Every structure is written in structure tokens, then in C-alpha cells.
Amino acid sequence: MKLLLIVAWRNLWRKKRRTFITVSSVLFAVVLATALMSLIEGTREVMIDSIINNTTGHLQVQDALYNEEPSIDHALEYGEDIKNVLAGYAGVINYTVPRIQGFCLGAKDVGTRGVYVMGIKPEKEDRMNDLSSKMIEGEMFTDEDQYAVIASGVAALLDLSIGDSIVLMGQGFQGMTAAGIYSVGGIVEFNLPEQNNTLVYLPLKQAQLFFAAPERLNSLILMVEDERIVDDLAQSLREKLDDEWYAVKTWEELLPDAVAALEARDAQVKIFAWILYIVAGFGIFGTIITMMHERLREFGILLSIGLKRAQLSSICLLETVMMSFLGVLSGIAIGYPVMYWLNRNPIPLEDELAGVMLDMGFEPVLPFSVAPDIFVYQGITIFFIALVVGLYPVRKVFGLDMISAARK
Fold it and tell me: Which pLDDT belongs to residue 315?
């Protein structure tokens, strides 16, 4: 076996151009597959991060009935029992984001508008979704302030500016009337029209008083450092909290439609990926066929002087393995720095496509991922495709007529 390895290795460099062409075909297949999957995975990561950071968080603790009937009447009582349980996970939970929210009627003079009132702790929201960066006028409130911060769409629709007052009316906890007048102290702007035309922020304490729900929350968002532990953490919390009163939901459970859309997209991605693999396989196959026909006379002479067909086919297979391995390593060595650079410097989008991305709430760029499994998976896949293609010379050797081949 050692002798066959030596012969196969020497054969590679006996015809450097031939080896270079075959290695290059594998290399380009790996780079293209890696680039495609890096872009797709990068887009997926951005979508999931946007969902997590702008809406649900990684996990939510809610009242047991809230998910089925999301009403202020099913607001969660944020008491010592929950705080004590969460204290035991201080090393796992990065931070918490409390919220109380509900639909109300916002008005100024004779103009009215349906708005979504959200009571928040500004420092927690800022940590989760960088809310302060969206501020375009005024300033964000503190926990002790009593003014509102509204979205720019609400300000435009109700003709509100800094210092004006907005009247809010709605339904509070257990049928109580929610009504209040708040000065506008800040204006924020969002990319998504749905957010921009409806959101009104109040300090958490003021919102709880507004909804007549002191010490209650619609949801307590939990943010973790390692997303891989979300399911395990949710299961552990469910075991510690009384399921008659509390429910723990992951972001996948809260947004099943988004998960279904991602799964459908992943299925499409797999189809595109296998089309690319097939194209890459035929490219490698064409290179192998060309190489094989160039060496028919060589094979015929080797068989004529006594080399066994099994030995010759083993040499051909080892050559294919070596060239495939070199191509895969070279592809990863070239692809990773390029993908890393694109990860740090995403390709900006312009014109209509940029507008579409902004409307969806995403930054108008093409993001690339550098997750290690992308490179490992693409390298292994292309390597095995090359190995399957490499069985062609083996089959050819066993069916070769040595006399006719030696005369070519």
C-alpha cells in the first residue's frame, strides 16, 4: 500500500498541468458552494437576529393563558416566585426585558389614530434592540419620567412634535378604563411601517399605572448569551415554574409562521445547493474523463508489462483522493478569508432592492456567515462527490483492452 501511495503521489507531479486542472475544478466547486451557503446562512442569521432582537427575544415568560388570548387581562404577575426562579439562572440568562403593552386610541385635538402602547425599561430595550439609535428628535425617558416617546409615523399622522400632548385611551386590566395625557418628549423612527405608524413608548411604571396593572407584565423577555441552550433553558424553567400560572415560550413557539417560512426557505436552499453540487460534479467528471483519455496508452503499457488491474485502479483512486483533498483544502483556504472579509464588509444594496430590504426591517446589505460548519460541510460534500466521480477511472481500468490501449 505504501508503494501505491508513493506512485500515486509521484504521478500527480509528473503532469503538473493535468493535476492543476483537476485540483482547480474541485477548488472552484468548494469556493462557489461555500460562497452560496455563506450568503444564505448569513441572510438566515440576520433574519433570526432581527426577529429575536426586535420582537420576541430568545424566550418569554408569560401568563399561562396569554399566548392563546393575548389580552391585558392575562398580564403576568411579576412577583417574587418568578424572580427567585430566574435568580438561579443568573449565569445563563444574560438579561431580562420586561414589557407591558396594548392597543389604544391615540388622539390630538380632533385627530385620532390606533396606536400600540408599550411600557418599557429604556436601558433594557436599548440593550436588546439599540432603541436609542433610532431617536431622531428629543430624548429617551428614564424610569422616573412621565412623558411619552412616539414613532415618527404616529407623529406625522397626528401632527405631533416635541412638547405636544398625546391623549391615550384604551382598556386596562380586568375591564378598567385606561386613559391618560402624556407630553411627547422624543420621536423615534423605524424601518418597518407597521412599527413606525403605531408605536408609543411609556416608562414601564407609567404604563402599568395607565393599564391599571401594577407589578404586571404582558411578557418578560429573556435574552441568553448562547442561543444553543434556549430549548434546554425553556424546559428547565417549565419544570421550576407552576404551569397552571406560567408559560415559558421560545421564539420558535411564539412565531410559528416565521419558523415555517424559514423551513420552506431552507428547503429551497437545499435544492439550489444540490443543483450546484451536480454542476460541480459534472465539471469534475469532465476533467477526470479528459485526464483518463490522455493516459489510456500509459495504462495499456503498464498492464502489458505486468501491473495488475487492481493495483492500477488503486493508484487511479488514490490520485483522485489526493487531488480532491488538495482541492478541498485549497478551496477552504481561499474561501474562508474571502467570506471573512465579506462578513466584516457586507456588500451594500442600492435602489429598489435596498428599499425592499428596509421595508422588511433588515439592513440593505448582503450578509455573509463564517460559521465553521459551512466550510466543513461544503468541503466534505465536494470531497465525496469527487470520490464518486473518481470511480470512473477504476471502472475504466477493469474494462480496458490493454493491447488497443497500448497502441494509441
Answer: 76
